[in-house]
Every structure is written in C-alpha cells, then in structure tokens.
Design brief:
With 220 residues, the protein is α/β, with parallel strands linked by helices. The chain contains eight helices and eight strands, in the order E-H-E-H-H-H-E-H-E-H-E-E-E-H-E-H. Helix content is 51%, strand content 15%.
Length: 220
C-alpha cells in the first residue's frame, strides 16, 4: 500500500502517519527527511540540495523529486506514506511516472480537513519539553503538574519561533494556494479520500482504517 497524506499544517498528518506505520508496516517518508538524508549521504541529489538548504532557499522541484526517487529505490518494495510530497500536480505526475516504471502506484491520497481557525488555535498554542521533546498545548494538552514534563520531569519548555498566529495564517494561505490543484488532481484520478481532521485522534484513525479496509475489499 502506498499512500499520500495531504492537509494543512497542524491537521494531524504526522500523528496519523505514525499510527499507520504501526498498524500496516508502512514507511513514513517526509520530503524534508529525504532531502537531509541525501545531503548526509553525499549523493548527487544531496550535493545539489545542500546549497539551497544552507541558504534557506526553496529547493527546486527536480532536486526534491530526485531525493524522493532515491529513497523509494531503497525501500525494496515496502509500502510507504508520503508526507509533504508531492506539493504540486507537476510533482505528482513525475511521481506517477516513476512508480509506473517500477510497476507500482499510489493507492490513495488522504486529505485531512480542518477549519483554518481551529488550526490557528492548535498551532499557536503548541510547545515542547526542552529535554525530551514531549509535546504540549496551552489549552488542549497541559502537563499534569504545572511546569513539569509528564514524561521526563523536565521544567524547561520551548516554542517554535514560527508557531504564532501571523506566521500560521501565512502558511495556511500558501497551503490553500498550492494544494488545491493537487487535491483536484487526485480527485480526478479517483484516488482522493477526505477525512474530517477535527474529530478526536482515535476517530480520525478509524476513518483511515476504513480507507485501508476499502482497499483490502477491492483486492479480494
């Protein structure tokens, strides 16, 4: 099974991807991780990406696609979850062509839909334990003891500099502009499945399971 996860920042893609890894034995692949791995390995694609990444510049499509393809070739046929790639219909077509050459395909593109105002609240309130990285939220998930991490007992916490309302709204505007054509691409291909990402994590996970069950039923 090969799945693409779509959805705005803060929609829960990372959480669901980890659950899908555990349930179905898939490999979660994010574009950022794949680029960093290529740089660390010193591959041709990694060398091309390094300069852009060091400058904080947007890595060109062909370099990102190259990093993804390098990673896919190392999976030895294992199913995967793509998070953060593709970002455009151009990348999606390139991915389809590559997979077809290898006798593979994308089975589903799952989009987690969450209202923008709820996303602003979710993201702007996030913070983590500086010692172990455990995640918290100003209102949705606070430590059991004020100022003390539930996991490690640490007392120092931190927030990402871009987890603020102004930045979140800008990121959402970019997401809607860039991803709407991609969602339409997979809808036209009959591979899009929409899931209400505002529901509790367990219910969202159950909805994902239903998509996988649909695939299983179609192959029997």
């Amino acid at each position: 099974m090969n799945v693409i996860l779509l959805g705005p920042p803060g929609a829960g893609k990372g959480t669901q991807a980890k659950l899908m890894e555990e349930r179905y034995g898939l490999r979660q692949l994010s574009s950022g991780d794949m680029l960093r791995a290529a740089v660390a390995a010193g591959t041709e694609v990694g060398r091309a990406a390094k300069g852009y990444m060091e400058q904080g510049a947007l890595v060109p499509d062909d370099v990102v696609v190259g990093a993804v393809f390098e990673t896919l070739e190392m999976l030895n046929g294992a199913g995967f979850i793509l998070d953060g790639f593709p970002r455009t219909p151009v990348q999606a077509r390139a991915l389809d062509e590559k997979l077809q050459q290898d006798g593979k395909r994308i089975d589903w593109a799952i989009v987690f839909e969450v209202d923008d105002e709820q996303l602003v609240q979710r993201i702007a309130g996030r913070y983590t334990c500086a010692a172990c990285g455990e995640g918290y939220h100003d209102t949705l998930k606070t430590p059991r003891a004020l100022g003390v991490c539930d996991r490690c007992g640490g007392t120092t916490f931190k927030r990402r500099s871009d987890d603020n309302e102004e930045t979140v709204r800008k990121r959402l505007a970019v997401y809607h502009a860039e991803t709407k054509p991609l969602i339409e691409f997979y809808r036209q291909g009959g591979k899009l499945r929409r899931i209400d990402g505002e529901r509790p994590i367990e219910e969202v996970s159950q909805a994902v399971d239903q998509v996988f069950a649909e695939s299983a039923a179609a192959t029997t």
